[in-house]
Amino acid sequence: MILQIEPIIKLIKKGSPDIVNNIKFESVDVYKYLQRAYQDTDVTTNYMFQFTFRKYYNLEEARLSHQFHLEYFRILQDLKSNREAWNYENVIEKLYEIPRAKGDKSVQCSFVSKMFHTNDPANVVYDSKVAKMFNFSNLNLIPFDQKIQHFKNRIGTISYNYKKIIDHGLLSEVCESFDTRFENHGLHPTKKLDFIFWSAGKIIYSRTKDYLE
After folding, report:
1. Is 1 within the bounds of a domain?
2. Does some domain include residue 79?
3. Which domain holds residue 90?
4. Dihedral sign (CA 187, 188, 191, 193)
């Protein structure tokens, strides 16, 4: 997907103080806890991890079933040692077969992106606020047989542009402000940009109610 990143960069620079200050210290701390716990424990039996992960990444809001959660964390654990067996497409399809709490099925692209990011922080996170910044339309409006490919294209677009921003220092001053606020955070550069883009999208959403995921 061709995208002009310059207007987005300009928008983030303009709102830099609000964007960085909008990121809560507890959000960074909980994220770091989840990353450590994922590496250090078996997440299929670490129920504190599961509870915190579900709350932090808003899995509860999707009204997913207990069986969905069991399979989600099983795959997340399996990714540690069997990464070559899983990709966005087959994980989305696997989880699609598990009905939500009310019995219907749903494509959970955002939650799958969060799974792959947890396994490898170099992978980007896809959610509604980041999607806003890239002017993506609502995935729910796309036919089922095209949805996964659209999602993969969007992941590619975000990844390409995050790398461009990192390699060329296009948001260096904003990133320095982040580093000053969250001293010695130790986050992967991709996650730092995810926090910045997420916060920018959240602020814009609070001011303009007409955007789509």
Report:
1. no
2. yes
3. 6-207
4. positive
Residue 127 CA to residue 171 CA, distance in Å, equals 21
Q: Note whether 181 and 20 are within 8 A (CB).
A: yes
pLDDT in tens, the chain (213 residues): 557 899 999 999 999 999 999 999 999 999 999 999 999 999 999 999 999 999 999 998 888 999 999 999 999 999 999 999 999 999 999 999 999 988 999 999 999 999 999 999 999 999 999 999 999 988 888 988 899 999 999 999 999 999 999 999 999 999 999 999 999 999 999 999 999 999 999 998 766 443 333
Q: Is 126 exposed, middle or buried (0-12, 13-18, 19+ CB in 10 A)?
A: buried
Two tokens, residue 116: 């792959």
The total domain count for the chain is 1
d(CA 88, CA 98): 16
Query: Considering the entire predicted model, what is its pTM?
Result: 0.92
In a domain, 24, yes or no: yes
How far out from the chain centre does Cα 24 lie?
16
In-domain check, residue 103: yes
